[in-house]
Amino acid sequence: MKKRFYLTYPPELIKEPLIYQVIKSYEVVVSIRQANVSDKLGLMALELEGEAAEIDKAIRFLSGKGVTVEPIELDVIE
Questions:
Q1: Strands of 1-78, DSSP E
Q2: What is the pLDDT of residues 25-78, one digit of tens each?
Q3: Disulfide: which of 22, 38, 50, 63 matches 54 by Cβ 3.0-4.6 Å?
Q4: Alpha helices of the chain — where are they, by DSSP H?
Q5: Pairing of strands 42-50, 2-9
Q6: What is the pTM of this model?
Q7: Burial class (CB in 10 A: 0-12, 13-18, 19+), 47
Q8: Which domain holds residue 36?
């Protein structure tokens, strides 16, 4: 399963290697579709591929760290 999300990073998390941590900790394939980073804000369009439970764990991890995660509508590709 593939799902796409918009991630919004607050300034204090921009330099944190959160995507690396997701790749190392969860059984998901990560594809950064688009990103825009400044000193004040980080925006990213991210695609995650894997089992639904692993994608959910990865999203909970990011949300728990303080990243705003919003699903991109009509994003499921099977």
A1: 2-9, 28-37, 42-50, 68-71
A2: 999 999 999 999 998 889 999 999 999 999 999 999 999 999 999 999 764 555
A3: 50
A4: 18-25, 52-65
A5: antiparallel
A6: 0.87
A7: middle
A8: 2-71
